[in-house]
User: Fold these one by one.
Assistant:
Number 1:
Amino acid sequence: MYKYDNYDQAMVDARVAEFRDQVKRRLAGEMTEDQFKPLRLMNGLYLQLHAYMLRVAIPYGTLDSRQMRMLAHIARKYDRDYGHFTTRQNIQYNWIKLEECGDLLEELASVEMHAIQTSGNCIRNISSDQYAGAAADEVTDPRPWAELLRQWSTFHPEFSYLPRKFKIAVIASPEDRAAMRLHDIGLELVKKDGELGARVFVGGGMGRTPMIAPEINSFVKADDLLSYIEACLRVYNRYGRRDNIYKARIKILVHEIGADAYRAQVEEEFAHVKALGIDPPLAELERIAVFFDLPEPIQSEVRHSREGGDPSPDHSIDAIVQEIDSRLRGGDDWGAFETWVKQNVKPHKAPGYAIVNISLKPIGGIPGDASSSQMEVMADLAEKYGFDELRVTHAQNIVLPHVAKRDLYTVWQALSEAGLANANLDLISDIIACPGLDYCSLANARSIPVAQKISKRFGNLDRQRDLGELKLKISGCINACGHHHAGHIGILGVDRKGVENYQLTFGGSGAQDVSIGKIIGPGFDEDGVVDAVEKATEVYTRLREGEERFIDTYRRVGLEPFKEAIYG
Amino acid sequence: MVEPAQGGAWPRYRDDEVAEQPSVTLDAFLDQSNAGAVRLEPDDDARRLIPHLGRLSLIEIAFPKYRDGRGYSSARILREAGYIGELRAQGDVLVDQIAFMRRCGFDSFAPEGSLNPEAVERALAVYPHAYQGAADGAQAIWKLRHG
Amino acid sequence: MKLLTGNDLATGAVTWWTGSGWSLHVEDALDVGEAGEAILHAEEGARRVNAPYIIDALPTPEGPRPAHIKDRVRALGPTVRPDLTLKPADPAAGDWVI
């Protein structure tokens, strides 16, 4: 993974000193809260319901064991011994003291981490595919491109006071694991005539007006990318709405003027910007890409299998299960292990390896939360068995992207002991939930208790696995941090005359079959919404055909049978 | 033209004389061609000035609220088009935004409130490098890396 | 009744105006009546509180109870982590919020 050089380190160190000074001036009364707020936000520091909250950037969700241990250390020393992994592949701490922020950031900087641009009306952390580098279906590793964009967007002088926040995702696989088209800019790396470039989608997003980003350009070459994105941003900075905070995202601009008019403006701007020489040479992308090379043993395996050494490696999960040491089969825990492999382990591009998903969604737990000791367990496993790499997923889970198949059982055992072997990836209890009214000052209703009740209701793993892939996502307010619009089943918490109320949406997806869910009818109280979800799953099991997932059945039969069962 | 409060000096990074003539609005400038100073509001299209840059010695860009970042793009557009006269940020101009403004091509500042000159110098010295090219001539880090 | 609440500037902790200072406990909060705005400005100016605001509350035998659930969550702590609330020993404390 990427390592800072002296330039990168100097920039982050400078940021620590600058923010330390800003905090000092705020504490000394040289700045009002109104003046300080955008500065602290640009460094990921919020004032939430109970305290200050700090969001730490994990660029494109990739980190090593040393960094994960630092996150654990921060949790223990500056917070209350836990952290919350977010849908932007970051981590946030809920109980931070303003007066300790400078020291905290200095410790983070010592492991090449920071909180730069994790909030504010600027370009946020670039997100990416959690299986990058390991996925069999990728055309290239998208992270070097994401790192190029990270550097370009860091302290961008023109785009730090945009109309609203700005989120970019980069993927390089036909399967979209990063909700790419629900971003302000989504990039899908593709190959054309042997050359790599980016499909550019602009104007997607969730929030109160969810939109799927239209394609603005079908192929932007690598050495035009920064100019092109700069042009996209400049058009937005100049013409994005600033009269109404709810209409200020780029999706509204693209929607109001139309994708064609927006594209025409970008092309005109690009023709001009391209001449300025802001694009680094391809050598810079290559310099970055070297850091993301697969570890040597994996690389040689990939080479070997490409050169026909292993003519058609079977990447299926059944094959993985078959290959696991037969001595384990007689053991008492084989069944649990096998289930976990089938549910949480994914095929790797190298035949001897697998991708391990660590679910942070225990039954009845808080989605995305991890204690500092759990973080340390994950760090240790990454160091011992995973070539020192971890990923954070937008579904608030953790990934060990490169685990040798022969180590899967050992890894599973260690995860089990730490309460981290929940075999529920992509099942109904693998819920995305925002912090909701338990933590967030914007929330209208609590999200976490709803997630807990649903996961308990469907606690039986056999039942969950029978229901199959079912993405359930909960937001505690219309800002949609819990991605409810993209849930096969979405839940939106609202405030109805001071009482929490929950609306249900069906039919959303953040994957390559991207769609926005629709509200099915009047809302429910907390228990009512859990009952309604259960009724919906009953309708699905009654009507499903063949291998249909919940969303496939819903798309085929429509809302009526579900409505009848829930409201009838 | 607005004057600095109580004899204070505005931060200015030019050696030439301060333009004495009052700046006019963009519409007035485009109507009446002999003004040498113009003032752009956030929603004015800076590109409309491009044919006339040669005879302008001062362009003031207004920041009614510091959170409104349109002026940063206006500044870069003017510098990219070759404008070499004074480019002044006027209005809600605060010390923590000055470094970005300098990078976008502003070379003088007319804040509504007061600016502590030492704090301004400190703010301008915070970052040793820049990750991206802009209008200030700083070499982007990738350029330093690749020589 | 009206209460004045905010956060401690340095630590971020939720605080309540007691008439003479700031307390972590809503039980100590005092009805500020019509005086809220004036106290708010004075205290914020002196940086003894950050982001203060005035809320409605109901007097109860156990002390003031904020009218809105959001302020009750603030007063107690997250309902999903009783161990991190101001009443970690009282498992039923969350009922007061809802």
Note: Chain A has 19 helices and 20 strands.
Number 2:
Amino acid sequence: MVEIKTREFKANARVALDDPQLQRALAGLPGGLVAQRTAARDKLPEFEDLRDVGRDIRDHTLAHLDLYLAEWERKAVAAGAHVHWAPTAADARDIIEKICREANAKIVTKGKSMISEEIALNGYLEARGFEVVETDLGEYLVQIRKETPSHIIAPAIHLTQEQVEADFRRLHTHLPQDRVLVEPAQLVDEARKILRQKFVAADVGITGANFLIAETGSSIIVTNEGNGDLTQSLAKTHVVVASIDKVVPTLEDVSSILRLLARSATGQEFSTYTTFSTGPRRKADPDGPEAYHVVILDNGRSELLATEMREILRCIRCGACMNHCPVYNAIGGHAYGWVYPGPIGAVLTPSLIGVKAASNLPNASTFCGKCEAVCPMKIPLPKLMRLHRETEFDLGNLPRGYAFGLKTWAWFAKRPRLYHLGARFAIAALGALGGARGAFRALPFAGGWTKHRDLPAPQGRTFQQLWAEQQAGLNRPSQTRARS
Amino acid sequence: MSNRDIIFGKIATGLKALRDDKTRQATVDSRIAAKFRHPTPARVAGRSHDEHVALFKSHMTGQSATILDAATAADVPALIAGYLRQNNLPARLTVGEDAYLANLPWATEPTLERRQGRAQPTDEVSVSHASAAVAETGTLVMASGPDNPVTLNFLPETHIVVLEVKDVVGPYEDAWMKIRARFGDRTMPRTINMISGPSRTGDIGGKLVMGAHGPRRMCVVVVKG
């Protein structure tokens, strides 16, 4: 598995906030993706209704997951696919290594695949002597920097153009040092030429799958660059890595979901390339792979089916939740410490690697609710984060001071009279102490807050008091008349 | 126990699915057989074929592809030759075994060289014949095979696609009806490529650049007759 750094979330976040390069890269994006999504949604009046359709398709499929997977497998095998089942990440790595060995592979090209990140495939294959080349431009940038993706659809969103130029000059030393690399197009062109040679020389091409279609036994990839297509069409062997939750029943079902995917992800009406692959090349075909393998990974997902976390399996990995997340926008993806950043990561990561190891993530939320509001599959992300927090509390996994504070608060909250009395006293005292300035520069036990900003002082009365007064006011006859 | 048994066992446990529950299998079978169609966008539902064609063209143009209109199939070679001249591109095409393309009057353009087969990395221009085109997002539907090898769609820098107006449909679902009519129910060619313009990337500084790995240029010749 990719090294798990979820425990260091707080330290990672602090480093991210103080990283000027990262902050510069995050300044324009993912805000741009947010605006583009809004524009695309507004151009399709049916968008909000389609979210219900998408949710229902996924719920139906998950409720019959065993049967749809079996049906997909039957059709895929009939078309000539080799289907492999991997209960764990280690199983998947073994299976793929064996396929590469049997293909006598030297060069393995890869299309973008988060599942391959989840199983830490690149390092594993490289340690066994294979040359692994990421071909999605963003993934290539991340690979040559020995980093991991910081976003599930824009892996290099944390990099500025200047950083890319510096990396290309450092690594592409066979090219003239004085070449001009000012425009993004010049950088893209350089990468295109280098990766073209890899596509042509590759023995095995590995891609992910956005979906599997039970009706036809197909796997689907969605890209804008066409790298996944060159990866899977030029190598003799095409390997797909997918997880069990990727299956949908029919072409009609996937069409409805595809109407949501690109719009939610990049704000495009449709991605440039949506490719359906079914089996290896046919007898008369002059091109396409001679062998087609699909590796289906579980890695803990089946265990979510019986839990309230089942809803996270509806995710189609569009990235809209992270684009809209104030926390993600402030710290980027790496601080989350594992494969999936943002709100989806805050729910999925503890689900897959355990709440204990990833307890910081569900707490890394302001609960503003944007992620749920934009999720094309209507996943209640804040609710699921709250459930993880409850589990964390039950496990006794909280820092001692934090747990003590929560327990103290809970003791009062369960005794309303005492709570109101205490609140009235505390609010009045704080209101008086806040004085004319109406805010505190420093406060005992609240240093974490006041270090970065003032804490507004309460105005001297509690919400309950204000509410009672307003209700009384509304019931006055004159007020009632004025309202009607 | 095999890996497959482990996974299917865990799923069945998670779903609390009973082995002898025949209704679940019946639900799955009927869903796949029915090919239930969800609501399709009003921008195409109930619109005329002419409106679909116009919408397809405007979307394709918006996605940085060039649209050329051919009144009849006989005009296609001259339009292609003109496009190549205008863009300073070599007059050498790679084409599959597609009968419709083979029967075009190429002799009218003696300067155009044609090589039949899959694309090679050195090829600069390819021509293929679309199976269908979807109006709702300006998306071509290409089926792979000896007629139109998949590499033609991705290796050359310039991809020219010949599209017959009759193959333009409104929503994606209608394109699937065409694919099923041609290849059979629940049967697909090795690859179906849905293509919405030339290749692009936004991976460097979030700025859109055309021609990431696939074609830099795409030209769609829409044939009326």
Note: The mean pLDDT of chain B is 96.
